[in-house]
Design goal:
By secondary structure, this protein is of the alpha/beta class. The chain has 2 domains: 1-54, no CATH class; 78-122, no CATH class. It is 31% helix and 21% strand. It has 6 helices and 5 strands. The strands form 2 sheets. A 3-stranded mixed sheet has the order 1-3-2. A two-stranded parallel sheet has the order 4-5. The longest helix is centred in the last third of the chain and has 12 residues, at 123-134. It is globular, with a radius of gyration of 16 Å.
């Protein structure tokens, strides 16, 4: 399967690798346009943003296939998670937050005045939340 990928090369020590995924109405280009790839690179991260199948510049998936358990439970228990949502999100904010609260090791950031794609509404605040979170890993 072909994925279109944006990535930013950095020089110096890489502390972490970060994979950025997009929502259903977006593409990897959003992360590039709002400076997330550059922000993460400056923070010492190898940042990669892909276009999921049928989005952005990626081709459509030929056919869905069974992949088994998407994320094994033990992995989810150990993986630190950052949950970011906007207080103006009338679509999924509270519902998603309630679903994600069961993650064992999570931090919640509420962005004031932001809607569902809160990272687009206020890139600077979302970048600060992300880099602050990554610095704790």
């Amino acid at each position: 399967m072909d994925f279109f990928t944006f990535f930013l090369l950095i020089f110096g020590e890489v502390n972490l690798s970060v994979l950025l995924l997009h929502g259903i109405r977006f593409s990897s280009e959003n992360w590039l346009n709002i400076g997330t790839l550059e922000t993460l690179a400056k923070a010492g991260c190898r940042a990669v943003a892909i276009d999921l199948p049928s989005f952005g510049q990626s081709k459509s998936a030929v056919a869905p296939s069974a992949v088994g358990e998407l994320a094994p439970g033990e992995f989810l228990k150990q993986t630190p998670s950052l949950i970011v949502y906007g207080d103006q999100d009338a679509q999924l904010g509270e519902v998603s937050l309630n679903n994600l609260r069961s993650l064992a090791n999570h931090k919640v950031v509420l962005m004031k005045g932001a809607g569902h794609p809160c990272y687009l509404d206020d890139p600077a605040t979302s970048h600060t939340a992300l880099t602050d979170f990554l610095s704790t890993l």
